[in-house]
Amino acid sequence: MPVLITGLYRSKEEAITRVLRTFKDQEDAQNILRDALDRECWSNLSQALNAAYDGQGKYSTKVTIDDQEVEVWHASAGKQGVSSVTLFYYPKKPADFALHLIALGEHATNDLYEIARDFGQEGFPYKRGKRVGVDGRGAR
Known about the structure:
globular, 9 strands, two-stranded antiparallel ribbon, alpha+beta, 35% strand
């Protein structure tokens, strides 16, 4: 079972940010997140998770977690307007296979992401149900 981390974190803008879920390994992440997505996104989820667990994600931003600055990464798969999945997480290459999910969304445009209502933050960065840039801030 995934572990829900209840600690609160603060970004540079002092918005409260938290880890939504910590997955013990890629199979755990696949099984839990798959249930939250439409069937047409399942292969996108698999590809995004492969990239994340292989350390091939792209840099997004830095946030402070438990008084320690961490780098947030993102991994995407799919095609904008058809089906896509984007994971926002840390660390870049999950040590001991633990991946900490910050947000889940999809491409809205080439450089904006629509954060899922059930897998986003209460505020920015990565506010649920909102279009955000790669750094999780609101659309510009």
